[in-house]
């Protein structure tokens, strides 16, 4: 149980809702994409108050207005509870403007900023979440004297400025690391990373690297050997099936491989490299289609879903099980080193993310929304993985995934047609070795930067906690106590209510009096 906070004697504590003034925004009746003399008020949505990016303007009819003296809170949506500085304009329908009279509103802004995580995680609503007003307005709100509020805000902003400068430096360092990572990958798949290695290869090994034409012959022979092996397995499976009285589904015969169609090398590839389709270098297969019938299958097996596969990362904390038949196992089983490509759901950012199966669950299968690439002999699957993570690889994934409908999705054919720059087996090993080392070093530095960024955010929280306990700045005995401030707020509210009441009475007095007539009188008049 937390110790009760003991506030300075000059402070007062009230419920936030007792003194805060708030109003929710509205969707304007009239909007325009351009700023004009008539449509002169910017419409303040979340993007506008966060980035000052105004997308539409309104003429002000049936609008709620806000200005720089307010601060704003996101009321509806996934970021409900987020607060931001006030902006002059027409307030959006998902936002609320908040103001505390007679007080430094920046003080209240920072108070609610310290409560964001709690407000956000306790939002109400089964559909679109929204701020729980019972939680928000019932916060115990500590009020220091006004002069102390000003000192607290000044101190917070000075400390936050220093921290933000540090966070900016960390962000720049992370951006530079990402640039370095992509530069490294680009150099690797243009052959520049191993340029000296190729120059020294014949001297160190007593033989030259295979030519591009020899690479083509190697891949053709490798594919044929793989097919022959699969055919032999199929023949044995058919024999067993026949000996068992042809029980169950007959094993599917492997598709005969086609000859490789030679591709023209891109201009910037080394002469001993070739471009190949991914289907020339690996077996591309789909997975299990989830449906209700599978619930009735006797055997249930673990399988990977899209939620388990991220960019060079497997998340295996939650593994689902699915009904499976014996005839499906060979095609959908996972083997260590298999590449899994996310088919996608239309999102260009998430489509085509790829990871390598680590063999940590045995047996394990995959769903149809994950496309499997199992590389042939002499093809290093990690080399393919790194290429698909590079800017060039991502670009090729996006290009094959695009469609005329605007949605982006992959298929077996599209993944098969990804063009891969391909060197000899020996050079693949060298490239992977260099990338493993350098990318691991980069990842270690990035992790440290993320730790420092997290520490900076924790430091901010600590500063806010001290601020609202009276421990951030010293108290000044000459400051009028907060009780005086509350008395002023109370008196102003009473005066405002009195004026409103007087206006109502005056309006009532000015209203013309009507004489009530009896039904008999009305009848007489109508005769």
Counting helices, strands and paired strands, the structural category is: alpha+beta
The major beta sheet can be summarized as: 5 strands, mixed
Radius of gyration: 35 Å
Q: Which geometry do the CA atoms define?
A: elongated
End-to-end span in angstroms? 84 Å
In round numbers, the mean pLDDT is: 89
Strand order of the largest sheet: 3-5-4-9-6
Instruction: Indicate the percent of residues in helices.
Output: 40-55%
The number of helical elements comes to: 16
Strand content: 5-15%
The poorly predicted ranges are: none
How many E strands? 22
In short:
This protein has 527 residues and is of the alpha+beta class. 44% of the residues lie in helices and 15% in strands.
What does this structure look like?
The chain has 16 helices and 22 strands. The protein is α+β, with helices and mostly antiparallel strands and about 525 residues long. The termini are far apart. The strands form seven sheets. It has a five-stranded mixed beta sheet. It has a four-stranded antiparallel beta sheet with strand order 2-10-7-8. Strands 13-21-18-19 form a four-stranded antiparallel beta sheet. It has helices at about 15-20, 45-50, 105-115, 115-120, 135, 145-190, 195-205, 210-245, 280, 325-330, 380-390, 390-400, 410-415, 425-465, 480-510, 520-525, and strands spanning about 10-15, 20-25, 30, 40-45, 55-60, 65, 70-75, 85, 90, 95-100, 140-145, 275, 280-285, 300-305, 310, 315, 320-325, 340, 355, 365, 370-375, 420. Helix 6 (about 145-190) runs antiparallel to helix 14 (about 425-465). The protein is elongated and about 100 Å long. The model has no long low-confidence stretch (mean pLDDT about 90).
